Amino acid sequence: MKKELKQEYIFNKVPTNLLWNSISTPDGLEQWFCDEASVDGDTYTFKWDDEEAQAVLKQSRVGVYMRFHWADDDDPKSSFELRISVDELTRDVILTVTETLDEEEYNDALELWDLQVSVLKTKYGV
Known about the structure:
By secondary structure, this protein is α+β, with helices and mostly antiparallel strands. It has helices at 16-24, 26-30, 106-123; strands at residues 2-11, 36-40, 43-48, 51-61, 65-70, 80-86, 93-102.
């Protein structure tokens, strides 16, 4: 059974254009998400140690979000999304990670996202 993971991470006053670069470009993704990243059309290839995975960009809005579907996932409704928003009151920049995944993968995925985003926060001194 599929379950939705949705987690918000606050980036105190980090410029949105810098955060956008970190979630939308191979160079940016390599700084926190994977060891190597490349893009061919709408297909992103991510490498970690000896593992490789491909994700297809399904939707995006420049400066706001990127929504992907893992190429090896047979469920067309499965996706992961990285979304940037700004809190109107505090002006904090928020990165929201949303992923649809198998229920038994939920805790591991949450831990992995927390770890990966902590690397990104360290990059920005947050």
